[in-house]
Design a protein that fits this description.
InterPro entries: NAD(P)-bd_dom_sf (IPR036291), SDR_fam (IPR002347). This is NAD(P)-dependent dehydrogenase, short-chain alcohol dehydrogenase family. It comes from Geodermatophilus dictyosporus. With 293 residues, the protein is α/β, with parallel strands linked by helices. It has a single domain, classed as Rossmann fold (3-Layer(aba) Sandwich), CATH 3.40.50.720. A 7-stranded parallel sheet has the order 3-2-1-4-5-6-7, with helices on both faces. Helix 6 links the parallel strand 5 and strand 6. Helix 1 packs parallel to helix 2, helix 1 crosses helix 8 and helix 8 crosses helix 9. The longest helix is centred in the middle third of the chain and has 22 residues. The termini are far apart.
Length: 293
């Protein structure tokens, strides 16, 4: 695919909520590569870090969007604050009068997730915060921004999740919020289908995010060395892979047929003929099936 010439989203307006890093950044950049104007939102800016305390910023993501051929606009938004999200909706309305694509990728739950801890020992205060951070923010953002799609009777809302809902995710709190995000996509799809707006969920596979690269002690240049620590890492994918899948969905004229379902980066890559930035086409589903005991 010649991505310098193929700009199917030229003229379209997108918001990627939680686009500072990881899947959100990859999705924002690929929507830009497809020609979209992308509002990049999050709490980490060059003027101050979020509680995640990581170096990536929304400004960096917006610049990457513009570099790839789109138009990136960085806006600091705390998606747990209704007034912040309302201001975002007002800005998009003033600038364009409509919204074509909304991606809900707000997370920030890493410090709140207690891995390998039985539920009777979980800190329920952290579970409640995780629910607010990873679920309520998505619903709040959709409440404010979906009305921008209703007048034109079209639009796409993408819920970024982790997993298709099968199998246990290793921590009750994490498992709960990711499963609910899948159900949120289903429920919103049911209500928005008559309005011409499509809602669906998308999951990446083993995501080679900035944080994951650090955990494995590698960079994107030598990431394959991480497989020495965990063989599964050999089947990982960059955030741009799921980004390309979301961009392909946004350009699909038959997108309504996918409403309410959870779609995977690896299956979408095969359907749309996509590859990762290094030319690979990792398939996490086949990898897991082949390595399952």
């Amino acid at each position: 695919m010649d991505r310098t010439r193929n700009r199917p989203l030229a003229g379209q307006v997108a918001v990627v909520a939680g686009a500072t890093r990881g899947a959100g950044r990859g999705i924002a950049v690929e929507l830009g590569a497809a020609g979209a104007t992308v509002y990049v939102t999050g709490r980490s800016t060059r003027h101050g870090r979020s509680p995640m305390n990581r170096p990536e910023t929304i400004e960096e993501t917006a610049e990457l969007v513009t570099t790839t051929g789109g138009s990136g606009i960085a806006l600091r938004v705390d998606h747990s604050r209704s007034e912040d999200v309302a201001a975002l909706a007002d800005r998009v309305r003033r600038d364009h009068g409509r919204l074509d694509v909304l991606v809900n990728d707000v997370w920030g739950g890493d410090p709140l997730t207690e891995w390998d801890t039985p539920f009777w020992r979980l800190d329920l205060g952290k579970v409640q915060q995780l629910w607010q951070q990873a679920v309520v923010t998505h619903l709040l953002t959709s409440q404010h921004l979906v009305p921008l799609m209703l007048d034109q009777h079209r639009g796409l809302v993408v819920e970024v999740t982790d997993g298709t809902g099968e199998g246990y995710r290793g921590s009750l709190g994490y498992d709960l919020v990711k499963t609910v995000v899948n159900r949120l996509a289903f429920a919103m799809a049911e209500e928005l289908r008559p309005q011409g707006v499509t809602v669906l969920a998308v999951t990446p596979g083993f995501l080679r995010s900035e944080a994951m690269l650090e955990i494995f002690g590698v960079t994107e240049a030598d990431w394959r060395d991480g497989a020495r620590r965990d063989p599964h890492f050999a089947s990982s994918e960059t955030p741009r892979f799921v980004g390309r899948a979301v961009a392909a969905l946004a350009a699909d004229p038959d997108i309504a047929a996918r409403a309410g379902l959870v779609h995977t980066s690896w299956d979408l890559a095969e359907e749309y003929g996509l590859t990762d930035v290094d030319g690979r086409r990792p398939h996490w589903g086949r990898h897991i099936a082949a390595t399952a005991p």
